[in-house]
């Protein structure tokens, strides 16, 4: 039986890959344009946004800061989410830098044996989130031209993450979930400092070597992320050209009809399930829909992460024994939770008329919020200078690798 299933998988994988390869050759111009869009997004935004966080997180782990934070937040994180206190560091960095930073840092903790596999599956399920820069800068201002909408999307997104984390605490009940290095203990500053000092002493590498290894690891991960972004950008375009999305829209149309949402949002939902940025942009351009309906679908797309991000996470998790399936189920759950939260909090955080039929004419209540303007300005700076930053970083990495190759062995 298993052998037959293996043969079926081989035929399925081979047929699908061949079909896509032929599609690329039939539509070379469209595939090239889609790959350029994906590359531009990675080069100008993703790389400069994630690289500093990846490098900084490596230093924080090696210098024992993560162990220090873990000891302090152990009494909070374990009762609430059933993960070690070091999960608070992953959560904070994941929110600040965006996906797939949560998965990357969860894997690092697992490789250092600071968490168990079950704890890693719980942790990665609610720490892989979109960063405020993307929500406020790219989506709310860049696509919808409405900074106040970012408040609604952010509250629904991050509150949904907390709900997912609370729900995942019941996952893996009865299995080993006590990390090997940080044992449950009450709040103790002295104990936290001792752990931090001990962790720093374990690493005997000089600072220059540590910095080089951190940069090398971060850029390798970002190159992998860039490959996935380009691949799914092309794949999304090809599926649209060969009308596969039309077939998929039949199912999404039925689902949208059941929840009384307009069918016009079906193409945007399908695109968003593959790639977040393109899906969100398509939602913002959809006509004959209200702002509330657009916000609900956008919240779902953000929380679901898209198959592109999920593929990145799956690749990162494959380095350990942390399974991908719990993460995927958590993304589906987060998508529905975020969409429901958006429906209920819309009138609270985006104040306007109480008539549902006139929600499109809502007057922004948070238009002058400094947080929205700050992230919008920051996002414009990333777009303007991100490419130069990426170029400098890549040249530095090439020089670093070249020196490492030509360095004489002892």
TrEMBL record:
The keyword Transmembrane applies. The keyword Membrane applies. The chain crosses the membrane at residues 7-27, 47-73, 123-144, 150-171, 214-235, 241-259, 328-351, 382-402. Keywords: Membrane, Transmembrane, Transmembrane helix. Residues 45-142 form the Nucleoside transporter/FeoB GTPase Gate domain. It holds the Pfam family Gate. InterPro entries: Gate_dom (IPR011642), Spore_IM_YlbJ (IPR014226). It comes from the Bacteria. This is Sporulation integral membrane protein YlbJ. It comes from Evansella tamaricis.
């Amino acid at each position: 039986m298993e052998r037959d299933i293996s043969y079926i998988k081989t035929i399925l994988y081979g047929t699908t890959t061949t079909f896509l390869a032929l599609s690329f050759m039939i539509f070379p111009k469209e595939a090239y344009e889609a790959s350029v869009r994906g590359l531009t997004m990675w080069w100008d935004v993703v790389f400069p946004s994630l690289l500093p966080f990846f490098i900084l997180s490596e230093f924080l782990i090696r210098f024992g800061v993560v162990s220090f934070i873990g000891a302090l937040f152990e009494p909070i994180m374990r009762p609430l989410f059933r993960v070690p206190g070091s999960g608070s560091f992953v959560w904070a960095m994941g929110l600040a830098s965006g996906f797939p930073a949560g998965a990357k840092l969860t894997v690092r903790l697992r490789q250092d044996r600071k968490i168990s596999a079950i704890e890693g599956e719980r942790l990665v399920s609610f720490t892989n989130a979109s960063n405020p820069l993307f929500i406020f800068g790219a989506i709310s201002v860049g696509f919808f031209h409405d900074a106040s909408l970012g408040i609604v999307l952010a509250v629904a997104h991050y509150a949904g993450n907390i709900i997912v984390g609370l729900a995942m605490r019941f996952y893996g009940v009865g299995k080993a979930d006590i990390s090997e290095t940080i044992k449950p203990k009450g709040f103790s500053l002295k104990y936290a400092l001792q752990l931090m000092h001990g962790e720093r002493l374990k690493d005997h590498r000089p600072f220059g070597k540590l910095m080089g290894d951190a940069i090398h690891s971060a850029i390798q991960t970002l190159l992998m992320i860039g490959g996935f972004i380009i691949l799914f950008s092309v794949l999304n375009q090809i599926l649209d050209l060969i009308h596969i999305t039309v077939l998929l829209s039949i199912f999404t149309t039925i689902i949208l009809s059941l929840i009384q949402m307009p069918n016009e949002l079906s193409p945007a939902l399908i695109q968003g399930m593959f790639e977040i940025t393109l899906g969100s942009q398509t939602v913002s351009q959809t006509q004959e829909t209200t702002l509330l309906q657009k916000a609900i679908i956008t919240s779902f797309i953000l929380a679901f992460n898209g198959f592109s991000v999920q593929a990145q996470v799956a690749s990162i998790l494959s380095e350990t024994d942390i399974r991908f399936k719990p993460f995927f189920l958590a993304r589906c759950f987060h998508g529905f939770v975020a969409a429901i939260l958006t429906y209920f909090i819309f009138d609270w955080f985006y104040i306007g008329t109480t008539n549902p039929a006139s929600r499109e004419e809502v007057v922004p209540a948070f238009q002058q919020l400094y947080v929205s303007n700050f992230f919008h300005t920051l996002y414009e700076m990333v777009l303007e200078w991100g490419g130069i930053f990426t170029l400098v970083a890549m040249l530095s990495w090439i020089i670093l690798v070249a020196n490492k190759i030509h360095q004489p062995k002892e």
